[in-house]
Amino acid sequence: MKIFTFHKINKYTIFAVGLGITIMMLVLIKGLGTMLQAKVNQSNAMQVSATSVSEPIIPTSSPDFFIEYRLERDKIRSERSDLLRENIRNAKTDDSRNQAQSTILKMIAEKQKETEMESLIKSRGFADALVFVRENSVSAIIKTTSLSREEVVQVADVISKVSGMKSEDISISAKP
């Protein structure tokens, strides 16, 4: 029977055991490093999500009613004008062609009056104004918190002179 003794271990065996221990230590160190890296990444992820939740959402700009409505009004007129021009091109009778042409001319005249009234109202010191010309009435929205009686009379006078409407056919309101 052989008894394993320390004296019989040669230097190659010691080298092999030492190499094995070194490899195991490297694997263990690498595993610890990976675990620490994961903890760091996890803590960063938590910081990012915590930061984005706590920051308030600030709108970049609020839309202006007057600008948006004016753009929408121009868009609708443009679409209507395109349809009327197509009707003029495809009209089978002179009567339908003339009717489409007179509708386009009427739209152009209304737009010109609205623009003129808006400019005149703004020249009286108001920040902005929208004017809508209809068949038998005119409406105006003035950019202000409130209107005094004198201001209403002043705006109605401008609208009446340009559009030819009577004061009872004119409505004026304020919008901040």
Mind explaining what this structure looks like?
The chain is mainly alpha-helical. Helices cover 65% and strands 10% of the residues. It has helices at 11-54, 65-90, 94-123, 149-163; strands spanning 129-133, 138-143, 170-175. A 3-stranded mixed beta sheet has the order 1-2-3, with helices on both faces. It is elongated. Mean pLDDT is 79; it is low at 38-60.
Short structural description:
By secondary structure, the protein is mostly helical.
Any key phrases for this structure?
176 residues, mainly alpha, 4 helices, 10% strand
Strand percentage lies at 5-15%
Instruction: Provide the helix percentage.
Output: 55-70%
Q: Quote the average pLDDT.
A: 79
The main β sheet shows up as: 3 strands, mixed
Q: Helix- and strand-based class?
A: mainly alpha
Gap from first CA to last CA: 107 Å
Number of strands: 3
How large is the count of helical segments? 4
In the sheet with the most strands, the strands line up as: 1-2-3
**Rg over CA atoms:** 41 Å
Shape descriptor reads elongated
Order of helices and strands: HHHEEHE
Detail the poorly predicted runs: 38-60
Secondary-structure blueprint:
Blueprint lengths: L10 H44 L10 H26 L3 H30 L5 E5 L4 E6 L5 H15 L6 E6 L1
Parallel strand pairs: 2-3
Antiparallel strand pairs: 1-2
Helix pairs in contact: 2-3, 3-4
